[in-house]
């Protein structure tokens, strides 16, 4: 179930391309996948392989496993020196100096030349290539490589990849949450196998999916939501079985959460009564019984402060929501919530400061900064995505009534 | 209008920034016979002459407006989004401060690049000071030279076409006399080759400040090494990070509204089921999609799970239902259930029918790195007998 | 209480964090006969046994309280402010995420350091996984080994006293069998010497992830070079920056209040002058200090400039003045002028007599750097015939 | 006046010490300055020198100018390599291994040993020094150097140093403003010689002082304030003459600003009338006339949108203040304000967005990050000061009444 080491039929996978773009695919045996300008491949050719190989698509869509993807051909050449006069002084950069047209290059590709061979051809046909500085040479090659290397790498879809998928598609569906903010939440909330967590996930199931990764099939996630059903759309990419989802996730809407009387009553039938039912009625009975039992389980957790942690990423107003769900959380257990904007968490900490049931409410901001690691040219990326969100962390306690008088 | 005066009225020949939006600022030199064409229409220059700087004026067709903005070094930089080698304002403002560039300062700059930093410091040195700027790339040199002249900066800026790393800084074009620079800004790929060539051009009677602007860490390492060797002191490397924020309003979605809405949905579902029962399930039941494992994205899970059960137009008895829950609704026509936050409607941010919180949002793409800034000073020469 | 269970009630032998304040968290192992001494008084352990985790309890004297908090890796790290080699939560949480450390993961860590990261990952690998950690510094090794045992982690953590850079990772203490690690975390001064020694300890049937944690850029440069040479792919170096914010309230000082106050001051000054004139300037005029060039700092310029003119106690006629402006005042006794923002008074933040705005403030000192994080992966070994 | 290149009698100066602390002193000829453990020196020994020399205090408080302050003795040794096993493995670091006591060191200092000589002694007497790694050796030396080098550097006090002074003393007096935020304000507000600016400076004169640096004696700064007198305490450190201050700075309180009728009237006297006055009455007359003329000047600027820029750093509520002072600012001129917290600026931008007299109101955050530049050990400082503030920038315009209907 949790072995995401090998590619299995029917799974969703992420296909990383040299351009640093990706595709998300469900792999059906027998099918052929078309990667556009990168070529096509047969699903059967990668099924049951371990994840993480990099394939090059050759002539006739044959795949070969290659070693150095995303790396520079000339990495062993000494380009780490920025010689003083490698400064493009005389270089005029217009398209006329590029010896090969795109059409010609496409021809070469169809002719079965490998990406490396094409890049070699591009180099030799580029009339001012030798005038370029080592720096711009490398940039140029990297750019070409991204265009011409018919390579791809299948990767399993975990929470990290789910973030990539949503940031690419529609970041608002995960409230622009960054991987570092998600990671911080999971650690601060002490998510681990066997725990029982109360979760508000209005971010397409990203939080729930990430927790399932960390819990390895053991423990319970109770998802509270403000619709008839929670929206956990993202989970499907993560290849969890319906059985595992049913075992680990229980759901409760806020009405049921706060007004248990709204839960539909359920009457246990005797064995005799059951035998009299038609088989489809019996199925319905069992489903209703499961639903009822789940409701009882959840209600017991709520009323007995039974949760080992509270994790919240919601569109609801936190400052009014959180104080009302604190009682469900066990003593000394973490309370962690996310917001895209700091102001909503500031408001919430000010509320919690006056409420002695949470100590040390703190807003944390965590931000990743990526570097370029080309030899001799180490520097942070020039641009990066803004946002990523903020995390509020506190610990649920039972105040002594004499302490805060 | 040059960069160095403060007039109020636009005259022929003035440089004016036509402000269409923050990301779309067009520098124009106002000439009677010319016109500016934008996606908001045509703005003839002769209607611009005589306007006050700051005025908002309509296009000929009246379908759009621009603001007439006077250039400053910062706005000039903003209007150059597609040029390379721009020193952006968060960096340039700090460099000016750290190099103590003030009226009377004599500053060496290499390379000139886009001229953005040249403009920034020309505001500060005043006619009492001077700027010596060097550019080795001929097309860029020519462009910068023209700009310096057009912008009325030629008196205080000497620009020279030269590779300072090989040829040094002495004897700049159009300038005779001692350079005596008290501040140096090097935006070069290899500042360590230029630093040893500086000495003869620097003031010796006062502290001289230097800033080297390099994107890569390896450049910094070599620069620091060279500065040490050349006797510079108080070497400090810093980075300036800057972010832009915008004010927004975030709708308050109260838990109580959510509870009310869930009650309403439930009420309407039960009511709908009853009606249906009476009608012997005449209407076909649409399958409620399982929200997990559903291949298509939905804006909100609620529409798909509610609508199959009670669509207003489905039965005539809906009218009764509609009445019975109408008190919850703020929209009278086509009632789709209690909708406290206007889901599915186009709500203007800040609409007074809803409750809002002020929040700030970062820009979508941030400039996470420009360059490393290595500062150092050279103390004055010892001219006094040693006291010991 | 170990780090791996979820009990509610404190038992003898449990590790409990006595939470005095955020900056003062004392780990104690509860023993019937012992007691905890704090500046808030004495807390005998036998009164702690049987309490619920999370309870707030008073000291014997009742003059202070502590909260009884269960340890988590994050709180444990917080309680170790004076140890070196701590991997703080913003870094460690991201590393766990990036190395995909999950139940069943087999992780190599060197060095163990303070054990903070060991604790963080021991929560995640579960009994299905394993941690191999190495520490070359003997006192640190012994301390970490004891802690791992005391905290109930010995089953899943093998700690070895060894210099992995010279002696490699094979055959860890207390562990026989294949290591087959799928994740590696190196917090060493020279990771490039350890990386080539890893291969025989790594899983070959799956992707292996590595993270090298180094404070200096030069270390990163060497590490990246070595990772390339050793066949690692998708090399990426990142930095995690993190900030802590606190909610506060900022008083709203409206312009209208300022105007009203200036009017009041002026009125009182004129009134005072009149009274004085009548009294033939009997009171000595104190020199109004020139605010520029005044050597002593003042909390607010107003006190010194207002009070010499009209101090309430100065004349009997002040009573009249006092009455005439009393309507402006919220403080009846010892009226010192219209004071809309409570200057000179001790105002509690959020006092409902004033208007406030919610604001957030950064901590006074931020951790602006911990280390650079260099990530890379090693793809599975090719076991299949090449398709070509 | 603006020549801050040489040390002049009566000036305030900043004395930087090797510990990276500093002292602020007013230099009176003939006096002796005591720098505590660093020794003493005679003011006359540095008067009229250029700023920027580093002096070492020798025996009998004699000064010698030295070259390499704040730099490492062993900078030319190849310590840039982090050898694999320089890792303090065997080092036990307790105080017993330090061969010299602080008392002994003090004795050496009194004996006239130079800082370098003392450090040499400390090194040789430290029993485990050779076991230290190159890294910790250097750290150790640096630390010792800071303690024992009797060196100091006099520097002129500009806006940068004024910030250091207040951050050290009481950061709230300058609202925790960072040098980078100040610099950003000055650039965005287009401060330059000859400009006429409206300034709200509730930060001890830091803003006004920094503007004077940039204006070089030309132009006008009108300071609006909410007391009878503005608090520009910090200016005195910057050694501006009273004459220059009187020439460049006019003040106006908010009551006079908004209600010109509150300005005390002034009646011009004829030459004959003047001659009849006593000399002290005449002096008073001229002062009152100056004050009145200043008021008229300021009122004309206010009512004719005569300001070339607005710079604000105040404790007043910005969102209600700014809209009321916009009319005083000229067309296309910048409006720049500072706040310690972003929330107050957010509120203000939301107000300005609805007010079409300011385009492009933007909140900017600028933060400095300092690096350690020791050879082979380049990294950002591990800790740094939080805060520094935020800047709101917009441009004053005259909206077309048909545009925003």
UniProtKB/TrEMBL annotation, chains B, C:
It is found in: Nucleus. It catalyses: adenosine(58) in tRNA + S-adenosyl-L-methionine = N(1)-methyladenosine(58) in tRNA + S-adenosyl-L-homocysteine + H(+). One of its GO terms (cellular component) is nucleus. S-adenosyl-L-methionine binds at residues 135, 187. Residues 64-377 form the tRNA (adenine(58)-N(1))-methyltransferase catalytic subunit TRM61 C-terminal domain. Its EC number is 2.1.1.220. This is tRNA (adenine(58)-N(1))-methyltransferase catalytic subunit TRM61. The gene is GCD14.
């Amino acid at each position: 179930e949790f072995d995401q080491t090998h590619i299995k039929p029917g799974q969703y996978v992420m296909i990383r391309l040299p351009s640093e773009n990706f595709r998300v695919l469900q792999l059906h045996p027998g099918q052929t996948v078309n990667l556009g300008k990168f070529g096509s491949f047969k699903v059967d050719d990668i099924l049951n392989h371990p994840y993480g190989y990099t394939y090059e698509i050759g002539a006739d869509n044959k795949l070969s496993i290659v070693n150095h993807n995303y790396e520079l051909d000339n990495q062993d050449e000494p380009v780490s020196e920025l010689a003083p006069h490698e400064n493009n002084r005389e270089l005029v950069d217009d398209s006329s100096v590029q010896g090969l047209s795109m059409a010609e290059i496409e021809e070469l590709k169809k002719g079965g030349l490998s990406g490396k061979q094409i890049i070699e051809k591009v180099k030799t046909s580029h009339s001012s290539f030798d005038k370029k500085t080592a720096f711009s040479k490398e940039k140029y090659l990297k750019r070409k490589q991204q265009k011409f290397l018919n390579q791809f790498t299948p990767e399993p879809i975990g929470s990290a990849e789910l973030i990539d998928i949503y940031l690419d598609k529609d970041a608002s569906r995960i409230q622009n949450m960054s991987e570092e903010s998600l990671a911080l939440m999971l650690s601060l909330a002490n998510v681990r196998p066997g725990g029982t967590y109360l979760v508000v996930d209005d971010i397409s199931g990203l939080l729930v999916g990430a927790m399932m990764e960390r819990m390895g099939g053991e423990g319970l996630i109770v998802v509270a939501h403000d619709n008839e059903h929670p929206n956990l759309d993202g989970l499907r990419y993560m290849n969890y079985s319906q059985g595992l989802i049913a075992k680990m996730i229980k759901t409760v809407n806020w009405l049921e959460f706060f007004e248990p009387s709204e839960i539909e009553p359920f009457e246990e039938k005797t064995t005799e009564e059951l035998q009299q039912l038609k088989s489809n009625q019996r199925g319905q009975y069992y489903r209703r019984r499961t639903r009822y039992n789940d409701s009882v389980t959840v209600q017991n957790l709520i009323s007995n402060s039974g949760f080992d942690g509270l994790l919240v990423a919601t569109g609801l107003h936190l400052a009014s929501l959180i104080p009302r769900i604190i009682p469900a959380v066990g003593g000394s257990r973490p309370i962690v919530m996310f917001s895209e904007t700091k102001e909503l968490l500031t408001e919430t900490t000010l509320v919690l400061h006056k409420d002695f049931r949470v100590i040390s409410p703190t807003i944390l901001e965590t931000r990743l900064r990526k570097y370029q690691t080309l030899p001799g040219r180490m520097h942070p990326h020039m641009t990066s995505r803004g946002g990523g969100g903020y995390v509020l962390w506190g610990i649920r306690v039972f105040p002594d009534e004499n302490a805060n008088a | 209008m040059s960069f160095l005066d403060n007039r109020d009225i636009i005259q022929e020949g003035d440089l004016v920034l036509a402000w269409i939006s923050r990301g779309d600022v067009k520098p124009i030199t106002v000439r009677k016979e010319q016109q500016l064409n934008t996606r908001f229409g045509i703005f003839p220059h002769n209607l611009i002459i005589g306007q006050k700087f700051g005025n908002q004026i309509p296009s000929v067709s009246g379908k759009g407006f621009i603001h007439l903005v006077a250039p400053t070094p910062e706005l000039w930089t903003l209007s150059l989004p597609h040029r390379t080698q721009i020193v952006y304002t968060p960096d340039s403002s700090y460099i000016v401060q750290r190099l103590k560039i003030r009226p009377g300062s004599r500053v060496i700059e290499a390379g000139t690049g886009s001229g953005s930093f040249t403009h920034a410091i020309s505001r500060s040195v005043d006619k009492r000071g001077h700027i010596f700027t060097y550019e080795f790339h001929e097309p860029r040199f020519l462009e910068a030279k023209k700009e310096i002249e057009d912008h009325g900066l030629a008196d205080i800026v000497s620009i020279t076409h030269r590779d300072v790393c090989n040829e040094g800084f002495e004897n700049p074009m159009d300038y005779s006399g001692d350079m005596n620079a008290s501040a140096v800004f090097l935006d070069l790929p290899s500042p360590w080759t230029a630093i040893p060539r500086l000495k003869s051009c620097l003031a010796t009677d006062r502290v001289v400040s230097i800033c080297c602007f390099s994107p890569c860490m390896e450049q910094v390492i070599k620069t620091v090494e060279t500065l040490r060797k050349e006797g510079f002191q108080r070497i400090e490397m810093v980075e300036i990070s800057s972010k832009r924020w915008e004010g927004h309003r975030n709708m308050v979605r109260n838990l109580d509204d959510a509870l009310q809405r869930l009650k309403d949905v439930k009420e309407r579902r039960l009511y709908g089921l009853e009606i249906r029962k009476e009608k012997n399930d005449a209407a076909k039941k649409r399958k409620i999609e399982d929200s997990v494992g559903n291949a298509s994205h939905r804006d909100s899970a609620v529409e798909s799970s509610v609508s199959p059960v009670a669509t207003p137009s489905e039965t005539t008895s809906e009218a009764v239902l509609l009445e019975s829950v109408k008190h919850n609704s703020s929209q009278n026509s086509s009632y789709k259930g209690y909708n406290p936050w206007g889901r599915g409607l186009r709500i203007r941010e800040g609409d007074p029918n809803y409750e809002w919180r002020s929040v700030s949002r970062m820009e979508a793409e941030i400039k996470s790195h420009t360059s490393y800034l290595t500062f150092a000073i050279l103390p004055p020469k010892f001219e006094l007998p040693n006291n010991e």
